[in-house]
Amino acid sequence: EAGVAQSPRYKIIEKRQSVAFWCNPISGHATLYWYQQILGQGPKLLIQFQNNGVVDDSQLPKDRFSAERLKGVDSTLKIQPAKLEDSAVYLCASSPGQEYNEQFFGPGTRLTVL
Amino acid sequence: AQSVTQLDSQVPVFEEAPVELRCNYSSSVSVYLFWYVQYPNQGLQLLLKYLSGSTLVESINGFEAEFNKSQTSFHLRKPSVHISDTAEYFCAVKRRGRGGSEKLVFGKGTKLTVNP
Prior knowledge:
Number of strands of chain A: 11
Strand content of chain B: over 45%
Oligomer: heterodimer
Distance between the termini of chain A: 37 Å
Strand content of chain A: over 45%
Structural class of chain B: mainly beta
Radius of gyration of chain A: 13 Å
Number of helices of chain B: 0
Distance between the termini of chain B: 41 Å
Structural class of chain A: mainly beta
Largest interface: A-B, 25 and 27 residues
Helix content of chain A: under 10%
Order of helices and strands of chain B: EEEEEEEEEEEE
Largest sheet of chain A: 7 strands, mixed
Radius of gyration of chain B: 14 Å
Order of helices and strands of chain A: EEEEEEEEEEE
């Protein structure tokens, strides 16, 4: 079974530029999560989808971050414009459902904002 | 609100030595507790979890954790570590978020370095 795929693996941009990350969850997984992991900290949930609907985006900085999961499969996370403090690893995870007690993580995208 | 505290940011040990990675949680309700491991340049993987029942839970690679309700702890232990156990370990608690969603809240992580 293929795992969670993410691209790109690394991205370097200058502040005020835009960037997008892509995630392909495990086939059949209804729930998709985006996390931000700043160096020295644990992952922090940004947004959670159930199929193509948003369940929780309370910690998403909506003035600059957006995410979508149009067909309930792949998802894209966008930052526009980026700030220095957005430098982090962005992790995507999926699970069969919210009640399932394991999340499967992708390798992450390491973003550096200069 | 539920939160997780990992008391040690880095733990260096020698190969074949025992190790304990500490985790304390705060919660006023029943908890689900997890340990995830992150090897270099990889995503997180579930190591073990406590949902209910026996307070001692084990993983397939020799780690174990004990849920201690009175001390609100879920420490991770291994009696004899290998070089390959070098990784970052995250303790997490499942909490209820907005709209009835359930989400994981992670600690800051503990970097375990096993030296030869």
